[in-house]
Amino acid sequence: MPSTLRDLMTPSPTTLQASDPAVDAARAMRQHDIGDVVVLDGNRLCGIVTDRDLVVRGVAEGRDLTATTVGDLCSRDLATVDVDSAPEEAVQAMRAQSVRRLPVVEGARPVGIVSLGDLAVDRDSRSALADISSAPANT
Fold first, then answer.
1. CB of 47 closer than 8 Å to CB of 71
2. H helices of 63-109, where?
3. Residue 78 near residue 45, CB atoms below 8 Å
4. How far is Cα 56 from Cα 87, in angstroms, rounded to an integer?
5. How far apart are CA 138 and CA 116, in angstroms?
C-alpha cells in the first residue's frame, strides 16, 4: 500500500490560467483523456474545473465557452492535500467537501491530482469502483 499521496496521485496535473477560454479546458480534457483541469492565477492555485462544471455551469446555462473563462466556471473553495499526506487524509477531505478529486500540492504548487478511484484502488483493489477506475478508458 502507498504510504503517501506521492505514491498514489496522478502527477503533473494539466493546468490552465483562470483567464483562458473554457473551451480550452474541454479540449485539454479530450486531448489528455481526463475529467478535470487545475486552474491557476499566475503561479497560484485558484480552482479546479471539471467536465461536469463545463456542462452544468457553462453549456446548460447557455454560455459561449469561447467567451467564458475557465475562472468563471471553476470551483474556487478548494480542499487540497499535501503530497506527503497519508491517503486517509485525502479520504477525509473528500468526505468533508463532497468531492471526487483533490489537487495534491507541494507547498502552494499543484503537483498532482488524487481521485476517488485512485483511493478505491489503493484501499480495495477488488471493489467495483476500483475495477471500474483501473479499466482502460472508453474513448
1. yes
2. 70-73, 87-97
3. yes
4. 30
5. 18
pLDDT at 130 over 50: no
Single out the residue of 109, 102, 106, 103 nearest to residue 44, CA to CA. Answer: 109
Residue pair 48/74 in contact by the 8 Å Cβ criterion: yes
Q: The pTM is what? A: 0.84
In the prediction, which pLDDT does 108 show? 85
For 98-122, write each residue's pLDDT tens digit. Answer: 999 999 999 889 999 999 888 887 7
In this structure, what CATH number is given to the domain that contains residue 51?
Answer: 3.10.580.10
Q: Is residue 138 part of a domain?
A: no
Q: CA 29 to CA 129: how far, in whole Å?
A: 21
Nearest to 24 by CA among 8, 5, 40: 40
Q: Is residue 71, in this structure, part of any structural domain at all?
A: yes
Residue 73 is assigned to a structural domain of this protein: yes
DSSP code of 42?
Answer: T
Q: Sheet harboring 36-41: ordered strands across?
A: 15-17, 36-41, 44-50
Q: Please compute the mean of the pLDDT values over residues 28-43 and round it to a whole number.
A: 95
Range of the domain at 44: 5-133
Over its C-alpha atoms, the chain yields an Rg (Å, rounded) of 15
